[in-house]
Hints:
- There is one protein chain.
- The chain is an alpha+beta fold and 390 residues long.
- It folds into 3 domains: 7-108, Acyl-CoA dehydrogenase/oxidase, N-terminal domain (Butyryl-Coa Dehydrogenase, subunit A, domain 1, Orthogonal Bundle), CATH 1.10.540.10; 113-226, Butyryl-CoA Dehydrogenase, subunit A, domain 2, CATH 2.40.110; 243-379, Butyryl-CoA Dehydrogenase, subunit A, domain 3, CATH 1.20.140.10.
- It contains 11 helices and 8 strands.
- It has helices at residues 7-23, 30-39, 59-71, 80-93, 96-108, 228-237, 243-265, 271-295, 306-327, 350-358, 368-379, and strands spanning 113-116, 132-135, 144-151, 162-168, 179-185, 192-197, 206-217, 221-222.
- The strands form 2 sheets. Strands 1-4-5-8 form a 4-stranded mixed sheet. A 4-stranded antiparallel sheet has the order 2-3-7-6, with no helix packed on it.
- The protein starts with 6 loop residues before the first helix and ends in an 11-residue tail after the last helix.
- Mean pLDDT is 84; it is low at 298-302.
- This is Acyl-CoA dehydrogenase.
- Residues 226-379 form the Acyl-CoA dehydrogenase/oxidase C-terminal domain.
Amino acid sequence: MDFAFGPEDEDFRREARAWLEEHLAGAPARRDWERELGRGGWIGLGWAEDGYGNRRADLTRQVVWAEEYARSKAPPRSGHIGENLLAPTLIAHGSPEQKRRFLPPVARGTELWCQGYSEPGAGSDLAGVRTAAVRDTGGGPPGTYRITGQKIWTSLAHEADWCFVLARTEAGSTRHHGLSFLLVPMDQPGRIEVRPIRQLTGTSDFNEVFFDGALAEAGHVVGGEGNGWRVAMSLLGFERGVSTLAQQIGFAEELGRVLRTAAATGADRDPVVRERLVRLWAELRTMRWNALRTLGGSGSPGGAGAPSVAKLLWGGWHRRLGEVAVLVRGAAAAVGPADWSAALPYELDAAQHLFLFSRADTIYGGSDEIQRTIIAERALGLPKEPRGRP
């Protein structure tokens, strides 16, 4: 695919850049920022359908918007799960009623979503979920499910209005059978509890979510009861698309800081360090070319392994960047602020945060081992890995 930007794309770039410069003044709160993006029509550019309050843009303009957003240092998105995961899934599998109900609030930035997939015993092995949803027979509203179980590593659950939950609706089912994809309101005091998980970095973006008889409407099952595995796998295919290019712009900025630090500390005079820095730069360029190739439709055979290839590339790369970031700092990377009295509780600097957070990059979103299995089985057609004990 020829991914050169034409004159109309550059006009779109100027429009996006001007809008961001105007509306970023004043450092808006994250939730307010989602509404501001919605009013500007910037949510849902890549949706396969319009008419829900979003504007449509072709692939090159989606890339332009993603690049300009990253370069503007706009706030991290609170609505990306609804925009980039739920919405494409509803467009592909949802009923007309579900689309009319849920897509406009996502496009307006007024309803935020979280993802109820991983569980303590089912992380990368998603087919092991145990959270159960049963038809309510205890006097609740007609046509509802009651959900009981626990989800973990749920990003932004503390802010979300809704959660899409993969749960078992068929008693006694195992693995990918008997699962359903339910849309669950989070405002259910006494039935849903959200507990933040404190990370190595001191932040709490992830959460545990406990469902104790939480209610979900039967009309909010996407794709039909028992078809949750198919819907869930379809959603994971939407997880890594144009956004990977914007992610790489952030990576380039982080690499730039590491290079400047290496020059300032003299670490770049070490031939081993210099080789690692050059390799990081070359690998980042390779990731960009791979992302453009995948978006252009010429990725791995059938496209089955393309998301897993991308995850393997950037997860390992970012982790190695974190290691080099503290290496070039030397001993200073191991200590806190010079003025401890002004920095309580303890705050990490950018390099320390990068090192600690990137340790998880090869685990969350599907571990490296799981990604390699997907590539082997679905893209290369190799024999499936044995399941269970011999």
